[in-house]
Design goal:
It is a single chain. By secondary structure, the chain is an alpha/beta fold. It has a single domain (about 30-35, about 45-200), classed as Rossmann fold, CATH 3.40.50. Helix content is about 30%, strand content about 25%. The protein has helices spanning about 5-15, 15-20, 25, 30-40, 55-60, 75-85, 130-135, 165-170; strands at about 45-50, 65-70, 90-95, 110-115, 135-150, 175-185, 195-200. Strands 3-2-1-4-5-7-6 form a 7-stranded mixed beta sheet. Helix 1 crosses helix 6 (about 75-85). The radius of gyration is 16 Å and the shape is globular. The relative contact order is 0.15.
Length: about 200
């Protein structure tokens, strides 16, 4: 069973106690930094799923993107807004449920980014992920994902759930065409947990 809203709130009420040492939540993702620094990536509107304390959103904003982060936890959003203010980054955050987003998000983004978000989605709801992400993107919009891929049984019943190559194709293949899929050399964070770095472009269905 995936964590509840109460679980996420507990995690972020006092992040210095709950997530101390968790670099995945305290710094922008190294793979994202490299992607935006090294690749010729046009700026645009970017939606960051499960934005946590906001560091990925802040990095997008500092690179010239119109960045918007959503998280299930109101406490996370509050911390992210403070971090953005300290960083003098112009970005926005909202406490939203990915599966019930307001209609103003539909077709509004050039990029959707996630780091270890899909691996928290219950397998029974995974089939909804691709259509929802596609609906958020403009035509030819880009999905960028850091997808957790440990040496773990993909049928385990507790999150985080491993995201295998088969799951990527099953979940996203109908709505997106693959542009790049590589092993993420830095993993999800400094712990070097195995991950894929995935870039896919929205299909015109």
């Amino acid at each position: 069973m995936s964590p509840s809203k109460k679980d996420y709130e507990k995690r972020y009420v006092k992040p210095e106690e709950q997530i101390s040492g968790d670099s995945a939540l305290r710094a922008p993702c190294a793979a994202l930094v490299k992607y935006l620094d090294d690749e010729d990536v046009p700026t645009g509107r970017a939606l960051i799923l499960g934005s946590g304390l906001g560091y990925d959103v802040i990095h997008f904003a500092k690179k010239g993107f119109d960045a918007f982060g959503i998280d299930f936890s109101q406490s996370a959003v509050a911390h992210a807004e403070r971090n953005a203010s300290r960083s003098k980054a112009k970005c926005q955050f909202a406490c939203e449920d990915f599966f019930n987003l307001p209609t103003e998000h539909l077709g509004a983004y050039d990029y959707v980014f996630e780091r270890a978000f899909l691996c928290q989605v219950e397998p029974e709801k995974r089939s909804l992920f691709g259509p929802i992400v596609s609906s958020l993107l403009k035509p030819e919009g880009v999905y960028v994902g850091i997808l957790w891929n440990p040496d773990k049984n993909p049928y385990d019943r507790e999150p985080p759930y491993p995201i295998t190559l088969g799951i990527i194709e099953q979940t996203l293949g109908k709505h997106f065409r693959l542009e790049s899929l590589t092993e993420c050399p830095d993993g999800i964070d400094e712990s070097k947990m195995d991950a894929y770095f995935c870039i896919m472009r929205k299909r015109n269905i």
